[in-house]
């Protein structure tokens, strides 16, 4: 059984371990989470049930839950100091958005918070009006031709552009302001396999695209220049630092790398920490699915989900955090399945098995500079962590 600490790790850090709330309502795994633009009051989630939900993560009142939650359930280097809490408080569901015909895989909120974009299995990019819960535009004419659109992100002055990347190996740039055409204004076709993740540099001059072919391609759309960085495994996650000088790259070789964008040098590698002594056994691995990693705590920490789930009996998931500068493991948090615990499923061998909470998506408030973060995965419940 895993032993991890949501109270202290080596006793000296202020990583947010307290479970503030859980966001319920999804009828399938949650594939995407994001905060609203600064100050990040709200959370959007995208689900396999084809719906997008808007939440206020702060419970309506202390009495909204029957249990008091101070930390998540288990301990990394010491035994739990208190019994596991039963039911964390529930955040407030504000609105549900339903126009997708397939699962929702990516979300991006405009800087004004008036609109957001979504993508998934529909082969179209949806632009939404937040207040009316209706789609303003659907970008699909001469759009992605096959499979899913894995990532979408706003770019340009006043969020005038949307950029999407998908299974068809292309990156497409769309003009949000144009009412006469829904065709992409530019198509980038250099990738040899599906696009998994996108990032945009400060100012919007550069587009970064991570691909299953193990490349991160940086397009300078103004100068027409392309720079390609090669990685040992399929690239599954990109997170650009606020100043644009470094980028966090996750790939399917069980490593997360902090890259210097000026020269392509790897500044630090994260992953593989099995326990407080840094042993590899039981450590962080990512070899099969897209697991998101982000910068948090004012870019002091690297935070990632977990494709394996916790090795215990209640379907719990895990979140890992490392110190950005030293690469040392700061925290390994348990992520409860939600009300009722893990679901029991029947395996191919006909035996009942408990389904694990694979944590695949992570978002940190205020672009990595806020005081809380949230995670989602196979349980369909989003767990929000904050300061004690």
Automatic annotation (TrEMBL):
Chain segments carrying region Disordered: 57-90
Alphabetized SMART domains for the sequence: WD40
Low complexity bias: start-end ranges: 61-75
Keywords associated with the record: Cytoplasm, Repeat, WD repeat
GO BP annotations, alphabetical order: mRNA splicing, via spliceosome
Database matches in Pfam families: WD40
Presence of the UniProt keyword Cytoplasm in the record: yes
Gene3D superfamilies linked: YVTN repeat-like/Quinoprotein amine dehydrogenase
Source taxon at top rank: Eukaryota
Protein name per the record: WD40-repeat-containing domain protein
Transmembrane residue ranges: none
One Gene Ontology cellular component: cytoplasm
Protein location: Cytoplasm
Membership in a protein family: Belongs to the WD repeat MORG1 family.
Main subcellular location of this protein, as a coarse class: cytoplasm
Higher taxonomy: Eukaryota, Fungi, Dikarya, Ascomycota, Pezizomycotina
Residue ranges of WD repeats: 23-56, 97-138, 158-184, 188-229
């Amino acid at each position: 059984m895993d032993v991890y600490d949501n109270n202290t790790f080596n006793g000296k850090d202020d990583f947010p371990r307290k479970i503030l709330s859980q966001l319920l309502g999804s009828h399938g795994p949650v594939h995407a989470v994001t905060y609203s633009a600064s100050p990040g009051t709200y959370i959007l989630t995208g689900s396999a049930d084809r719906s997008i939900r808007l939440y206020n993560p702060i419970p309506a009142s202390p009495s909204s839950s029957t249990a008091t939650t101070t930390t998540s359930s288990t301990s990394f280097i010491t035994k739990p100091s208190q019994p596991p809490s039963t039911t964390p408080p529930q955040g407030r569901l504000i609105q549900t958005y339903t126009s997708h015909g397939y699962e929702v895989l990516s979300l991006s909120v405009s800087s004004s918070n008036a609109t957001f974009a979504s993508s998934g299995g529909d082969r179209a990019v949806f632009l939404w009006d937040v207040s009316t819960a209706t789609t303003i535009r659907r970008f699909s004419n001469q759009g992605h031709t096959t499979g899913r659109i894995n990532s979408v992100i706003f770019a340009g002055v006043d969020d005038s552009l949307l950029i999407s990347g998908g299974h068809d190996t292309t990156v497409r740039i769309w003009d949000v302001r144009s009412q006469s055409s829904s065709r992409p204004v530019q198509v980038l076709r250099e990738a040899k396999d599906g696009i998994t993740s996108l990032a945009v540099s400060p100012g919007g001059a550069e587009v970064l695209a991570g691909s299953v072919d193990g490349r991160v391609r940086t397009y300078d759309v103004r100068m027409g220049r392309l720079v390609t960085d090669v990685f040992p495994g399929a690239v599954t996650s990109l997170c650009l630092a606020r100043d644009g000088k470094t980028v966090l790259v996750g790939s399917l070789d069980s490593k997360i790398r902090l890259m210097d964008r000026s020269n392509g040098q790897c500044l630090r590698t994260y992953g593989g920490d099995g326990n407080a002594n840094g042993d590899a056994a039981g450590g962080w691995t990512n070899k099969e699915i897209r697991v998101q990693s982000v910068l948090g705590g004012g870019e002091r920490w690297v935070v990632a989900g977990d494709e394996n789930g916790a090795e215990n009996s209640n379907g719990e998931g895990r979140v890992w955090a490392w110190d950005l500068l030293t690469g040392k493991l700061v925290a390994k948090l348990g992520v409860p399945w939600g009300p009722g615990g893990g679901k029991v499923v029947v395996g191919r061998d006909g035996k009942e098995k408990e389904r694990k909470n694979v944590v695949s998506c992570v978002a940190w408030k205020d672009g990595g500079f806020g005081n809380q973060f949230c995670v989602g995965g196979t349980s369909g419940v989003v767990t929000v962590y904050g300061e004690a």
